[in-house]
# Entry
Amino acid sequence: MALSEFAHTNILDTDQFSRKDLETILDTARRIDELQQQRKAFGILEGSVLASLFFESSTRTRLSFETAMNRLGGRVVSTVGFQFSSISKGETLYDTMKMVEAYADIAVIRHPVEGSSRIASAAVDIPVINAGDGTGQHPTQALLDLYTIFKERGGVDGKRVAFIGDLKFGRTIHSLIKLLFNYDVELVLISPVDLALPESYRREMKKSGMSFEETEDLKALWDCDVAYVTRIQEERFVDRSEYERLKNSYTVNRAFVQASRKDTLIMHPLPRVNELSTDVDDLPNAAYFRMAGYGVIVRMALLTLCMGETLPDAKHVTGM
# Structure
């Protein structure tokens, strides 16, 4: 795959992608997946260093990026939490990034302030990937979500997708909806009224001609090909009593999933609390743990593309 097919160096939000960009990412991830299954090792990024900058807590995203870089033959330097960085001493994010630029060839950043990834990318000449910025976007999660639908359901077009839970604050939902503007899909938005999708997203959906419906009834997912379940996010609430009132709005359990009129794919970005029962875990259509593996594959694809590298032909790689 030639570099000219992918026009982006930074991954900052989902608005930046065209349908062609998404096809390039999905195809690169598919090819990497095939190489992994063939137990082939390839050091595409050997000699390169990834700065893993997580100023907000994370397990899955941080470890999957670091695993992705290691599998590509690169190395990782990292900082986790404000208290372990010079930002705790008053250093600006701009100055921090200028220092990072001297240490690394590419950076991935998670930060609690919306728009922080753009500040970071403006400060440096190395690629920057947004791993989540406050209540803003989480583009790499959305891309692995898209790959999950592509992988598990053989494509994205023509699917009916339900989003359940915190649609107001859920940056994973916001990001995936933006990507789905590029496809012929129908959306079902299931949430308490107080956690409904922000009006700005509904306006965009109407403007784009996307078909969607809104409901508080969880049973609406029974007619969907994909159900994207999310937790009610305690950390996003200013008023604790509001969280307590809404936290158990929905619970998806085994009996409920099996009552679906379709073989509904169950997705969740994790972590979960009470909204998704553990008795769903061993159902064949429960994809959320498989998504962890897809996350590594998709992030390997993104690191490769952002660094301007190409995948080797199978005949040029060596067995593990």
The radius of gyration is 20 Å. The chain has a mean pLDDT of 88.
